[in-house]
Specification:
Number of helices: 10
Oligomer: single chain
Radius of gyration: 17 Å
Shape: globular
Distance between the termini: 42 Å
Number of strands: 9
């Protein structure tokens, strides 16, 4: 049960999603299918009025729980980080260990997380070595019944928008999964970019199964996904 509470189990995404699966399936269509992150350049951002990016990590920037950027998107990611006036946050469906690891991998970016506890929502932010919760506070919240909120979630997207400090319409979510990243963006009313999953062979069997399943579901509901030209809706 602790693994479900902390998000360490990949199954916890399904557990949270199951009661609203029909609603999530209706929100799987991204704003853009792009073949590579390199297509998200200064011209694309300016044309679309994008001033902030909500990032997924595993499958988008790295392999499954890998500690370094995958070569597939590394150069484009660094170029985006260097762009003046462009804000960044990370929302990842990671367990507690990976959550802490991400803040070391991306020390200049806020890594956001939220939990339900009773009827309320608790928010947590890490940036570099700074964590808004102490280890003791985390243990207390978990003991009190806190459960990590996983994508897709409007709560998480709303939190990301507040952190970015920009209007909702100026943000975009970039990820590799329809059921978590794209559906989460649509639930939160922001645009989304769907990229191909990086280093698919590194993912756990359970995750690869859900990756294949969502491709089938997308094809059944919306037809074959088509990568569109740069900047086109």
């Amino acid at each position: 049960m602790r693994s479900l509470a902390t998000g360490n189990s990949a199954f916890s995404t399904f557990v949270q999603m199951a009661p609203r699966l029909v609603s999530v399936l209706r929100r799987m269509r991204p704003t853009w299918h792009l073949a590579a992150l390199a297509e998200v350049d200064a011209a694309f951002l300016a044309k679309q009025g994008i001033r902030g990016i909500i990032w997924d990590v595993d499958g988008t920037l790295t392999g499954d729980r890998r500690r370094s950027l995958d070569d597939g998107n590394a150069a484009a990611f660094r170029a985006l980080l260097a762009m003046p006036g462009l804000a960044h946050v990370v929302l990842s469906n990671a367990g507690e260990e990976r959550y802490a690891e991400l803040s070391g991998m991306f020390p200049g970016m806020p890594i956001l997380r939220a939990y339900t506890e009773g009827n309320g929502v608790l928010y947590r932010r890490r940036q570099g070595a700074d964590d808004s919760w102490t280890a003791a506070e985390l243990e207390k919240h978990l003991a009190d019944g806190a459960r990590v909120i996983r994508k897709p979630s409007r709560v998480l997207v709303d939190y990301a928008i507040r952190e970015l400090g920009i209007p909702q319409g100026a943000a975009v979510m970039i990820g590799d999964q329809y059921l978590t990243d794209v559906a989460g963006a649509n639930l939160g009313g922001v645009r989304s970019i769907k990229l191909p999953t990086l280093a698919r062979e590194t993912f756990r069997t359970s995750v690869r199964f859900t990756q294949r399943l969502e491709l089938v579901l997308y094809a059944l509901l919306y037809g074959a996904a088509k990568t569109r030209g740069r900047g086109r809706e």
